[in-house]
Amino acid sequence: MTVFSRNVRSHLMPARVVWALLPLLILSLAACSSSRESFLKGALKNATQEEVVAQLGDPWKKKNSLLRGQATWVYRYALTPAELDPMGVDQLGRSVFQATESVTAMMGLGGGSNNPLNPGTRPSCFHYVLTFDDTTKILQRWAREACADTDL
User: Fold this and answer.
1) Which long-range contacts (CB under 8 A, 24 or more apart) does 30-35 make?
2) CA separation for the pair 50, 39 (Å, rounded)
């Protein structure tokens, strides 16, 4: 066996391991999705207002638009740190961010707590905005928004 073929095999082994673990990674990411969002994905174009209330409870706010023929409901949730960062990525990002802030401050290039890229400034409050058809009472659309972004 030549040196070249041994080197090729040694480089292929990690790729085989990655491909073998890829389905496991995809399944674990899918399992981390919010149960609310899983319900809403399945309920789209199927669930009635009563079914949504049975699953999510009463909405925080309701608004009916007679001109558009739709009802808009808003559910407000304050998400826990575990829900915001189920895989621990935010903690890693915060550590990297703090290190780069320190380096840029030492170099005299700024670095301060008002930086909008700071991973610690993410909102912890979200709204689920659901839109129902007024006549059928069936869920037509939903969106997850930061509380500050909801216009209702």
Assistant:
1) 32/86, 32/87, 34/83
2) 14
Nearest alpha-carbon partner for 75 in 5, 125, 116: 125
Q: Which residues contact 149 (CB under 8 A, 6 or more apart)?
A: 127
Q: Report which residue type is found at 116.
A: P
Whether residue 104 contacts residue 110, with contact meaning beta carbons closer than 8 Å, is answered with yes
The mean of the pLDDT values for the chain is 73
- CA dist 27 and 36 (Å) reads 18
- Token readout for 125 is 């409050």
| φ/ψ of residue 79, rounded to 5 | -85, 140
Q: What is the DSSP letter of 124?
A: -
Residues 132, 134: Cα–Cα separation, whole Å: 6
At 56-90, the pLDDT tens digits run 999 999 999 888 899 999 999 887 666 666 666 65
Q: Which residues are CB-contacts of 104 (< 8 A; sequence separation ≥ 6)?
A: 110, 111
Predicted TM-score of the model (pTM): 0.56
Residue 18, both tokens: 């990655």
Pairing mode of beta strands 70-78, 61-65: antiparallel
